[in-house]
């Protein structure tokens, strides 16, 4: 506490030299991108955290048993489709999925929701339609491919997943007798936790944004296989919000439509800030298995849909 | 990281978000439409900080909440300290909006023709103020039909073109500065705009039929015939 106070006083005192430090254009661009990723994500993070605190504290466990099909294999598609109602981006859905599992929702369904919600909600699909005026089929392709990936991952989890991979931290504060106390404790914990990992992800994304030269990327666009892999990797590294990624995909006009579809399917499901946040919320053993498998599934399904369509 | 420290960090972070969104600083990073959400989110962060402190200093009456009442017993997330970084970035550094460095890194956004390629006639005015995006789309997709015969005025910052000659550019945001892409217009004509990069200028002139390719993404970059130019201050909204 004292250290924090001293740190803050020092920062204010050294304000001018601090601002002078970032005069180099690369460093300046890095700082701008870093700050802007966080400013953009904050409303989604905060609303996601509040919603997940409501789920964790106020929605009774029995509600989920009634709302979702009893059989886990049927709960997976139901949860994927439920993603339509969450108008947000991926930063908000990680704490929500954590809360759902905590409240007794089968992990397979919660994970399907986690993957589907940021990709198929109306805001994201509208943005995709606006970004691809000449290719309206892109919207359907994105929604369809994302749903297939989310459900596949849910069912894969049912077959192969082990519940001990998910290590939700013990949270005695959630069982507090006072609802208000438990609610604010959940908010505080999730903001600090998911927010901290969001900072790590934003820093990584800003670094990639400044370091990876676009002309170098364009060289890969000529090969159909390389272009898919290049854009899939770029989606992971750039960590753009799912509401904006369609515009970036549209501007990568050298690349095939299939590779851009893969970019749109991979981005909301696997990226640096998501991996960082999932590690924080579900544990490292989970994230290091879940993220690569999701990546492969998303690339395969996205490419498949693209090949059929175009 | 104890709960009081968490409350202070949340207050610092929420305060930074609130301050940036109540002034125009937020416009350097995100679109204007996000403002109400930023204000609500900042206020919620402050509320969470205040409620944390309130509960911290007023322990539960029954004391049966399963902890020692001070919050030191559990493993509290240390990663939360990192939230100080964006708060410092916003309050103390407040980095400027993206400029010529970012514009040089990425290819121009003018990649696909808009869905309705019917261009309405220009509004009255002499010169007519046009956004770079509007000029570039009309010049490339409409072959300048709606532009010929009119005097036009464009506003943007100076950036170095591939040949080293100055170009006019603005950044276009879809969502936040992380997805910012430049829209570029080349400057032709006898008058050379010799201002350092990142200077905001207003150029007055006419349509030029010259179109080059952006070496970064091979998209079309239209040119503009400059008759006069002057320095100007950066607009409130630097992004298009």
TrEMBL record, chain A:
It is found in: Cell membrane. The chain crosses the membrane at residues 35-59, 108-132, 139-158, 191-212, 219-240, 286-309. The keyword Mitochondrion does not apply. Coiled coil: none annotated. It is a multi-pass membrane protein. Keywords: Cell membrane, Membrane, Transmembrane, Transmembrane helix. Pfam families: ArsP_1. InterPro entries: DUF318, UPF0718. PANTHER family: UPF0718 PROTEIN YCGR. This is Permease. It comes from Actinoplanes sandaracinus.
TrEMBL record, chain B:
It comes from the Bacteria. Keywords: Membrane, Transmembrane, Transmembrane helix. Residues 147-239 form the DUF1980 domain. InterPro entries: DUF1980, DUF1980_C, UPF0703_membrane_permease. The chain crosses the membrane at residues 33-54, 79-98. It holds the Pfam family DUF1980_C. PANTHER family: UPF0703 PROTEIN YCGQ (PTHR40047). This is TIGR03943 family protein. It comes from Actinoplanes sandaracinus.
């Amino acid at each position: 506490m004292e250290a924090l106070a001293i740190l803050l006083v020092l920062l204010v005192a050294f304000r001018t030299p601090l601002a002078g430090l970032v005069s180099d254009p690369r460093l300046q661009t890095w700082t701008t991108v870093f700050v802007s990723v966080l400013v953009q994500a904050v409303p989604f993070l905060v609303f996601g955290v509040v919603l997940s605190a409501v789920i964790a504290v106020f929605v009774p466990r029995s509600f989920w048993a009634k709302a979702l099909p009893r059989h886990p294999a049927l709960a997976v598609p139901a949860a994927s489709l439920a993603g339509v109602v969450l108008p947000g981006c991926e930063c908000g859905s990680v704490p929500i999925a954590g809360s759902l599992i905590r409240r007794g929702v089968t992990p397979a369904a919660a994970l399907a929701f986690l993957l589907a919600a940021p990709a198929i909600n109306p805001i994201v699909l509208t943005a995709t339609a606006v970004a691809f005026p000449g290719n309206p089929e892109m919207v359907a392709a994105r929604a369809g491919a994302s749903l297939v990936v989310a459900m596949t991952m849910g069912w894969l989890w049912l077959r192969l997943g082990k519940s001990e991979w998910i290590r939700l931290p013990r949270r005695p504060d959630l069982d507090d007798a006072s609802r208000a106390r438990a609610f604010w404790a959940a908010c505080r914990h999730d903001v600090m936790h998911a927010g901290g990992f969001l900072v790590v992800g934003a820093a990584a994304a800003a670094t990639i944004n400044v370091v990876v030269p676009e002309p170098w990327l364009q060289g890969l666009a000529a090969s159909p296989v390389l272009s898919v892999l290049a854009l899939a990797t770029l989606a992971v590294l750039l960590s753009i919000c799912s509401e904006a990624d369609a515009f970036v995909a549209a501007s990568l006009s050298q690349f095939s439509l299939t590779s851009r579809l893969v970019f749109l399917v991979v981005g909301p499901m696997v990226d640096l800030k998501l991996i960082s946040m999932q590690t924080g919320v579900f544990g490292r053993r989970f994230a290091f298995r879940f993220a690569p498998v999701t990546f492969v599934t998303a690339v395969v399904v996205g490419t498949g849909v693209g090949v059929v369509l175009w | 990281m104890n709960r009081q420290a968490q409350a202070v960090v949340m207050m610092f972070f929420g305060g930074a978000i609130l301050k940036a969104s109540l002034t125009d600083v937020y416009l350097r990073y995100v679109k204007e439409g996000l403002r109400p959400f930023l204000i609500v989110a900042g206020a919620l962060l402050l509320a969470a900080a205040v409620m944390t402190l309130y509960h911290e200093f007023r322990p539960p009456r029954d004391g049966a909440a399963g902890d020692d009442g001070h919050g030191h017993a559990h493993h509290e997330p240390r990663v939360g300290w990192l939230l100080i970084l964006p708060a410092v970035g916003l309050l103390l550094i407040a980095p400027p909006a993206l400029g010529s460095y970012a514009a040089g890194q990425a290819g121009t956004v003018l990649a696909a023709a808009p869905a309705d390629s019917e261009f309405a006639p220009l509004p009255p005015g002499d010169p007519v103020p046009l956004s770079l995006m509007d000029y570039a789309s009309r010049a490339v997709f409409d072959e300048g039909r709606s532009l010929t015969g009119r005097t036009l005025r464009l506003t943007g910052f100076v950036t170095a073109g591939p040949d080293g000659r100055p170009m006019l550019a603005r950044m276009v945001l879809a969502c936040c500065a992380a997805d910012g892409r430049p829209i570029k217009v080349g400057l032709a004509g006898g008058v050379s705009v010799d201002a350092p990069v990142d200077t905001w200028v207003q150029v007055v002139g006419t349509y030029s039929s010259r179109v080059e390719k952006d070496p970064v993404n091979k998209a079309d970059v239209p040119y503009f015939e400059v008759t006069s130019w002057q320095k100007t201050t950066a607009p409130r909204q630097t992004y298009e």
